[in-house]
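note to self — DONT lose this again. spent like an hour looking for the file last time. sequence + predicted structure for the chain T wanted, 217 res
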Amino acid sequence: MKYYGVRRGRITGVFDNWKACREQVFLFPNAEFKSFPTWEEAQHFVRTGQINLPQALPHPSSISKSGVNVWVDGACFPQANGSMQIGWGVLITRDGQEVYRDKGNDIPPEAWIHRNVAGEIWAILKALEWCQTNHITDITIHFDYQGLESWVTGAWKTKLSFTKFYAQSVREAGVRIHWKKVKAHSGIPENELVDSLAKEGANLTQKGNPKSEEIEK
């Protein structure tokens, strides 16, 4: 049995037969609809426009240590004068052994409105530079902000110059990326370490970044 999710049509929702779906989308301008094997998948498409259901976050003990794993984080500290101190941290392991770590605050001014997410983005770009230098072509990135993956895959629209630059840079890096979303502060040692690195990077900032506004979603 198939279920049909109608995201844009005369009536939106989930239908359990093609005839009912067709009545909503036939000759309807810019109709959006798709068939799915389960009602849950169809409903998720109607609500979000995304095809795949979100995966449950892995338990710390279930995270694979094999291959090249990249952990990233960003930090942002509001200052009394309304400015921000923003930093990034990155950790790279190979088969469970640390091979690289770094931190900093050299984030371009156009990214400051993204606050701590700017740090996470910059950490990924730094990690990809390291991978290119070391001829690494297949990695797993562990992250906690959904936009880091969704901007690259196209699930989220990139509206601002910095996220457009980020998405294009990742797509053209020549590195195959497996995305693994993890919950922040969930006891995963590597995630806690990059959190500390990002905070240290932010504290290296001597001149606060201008006050930011809400990031795009």
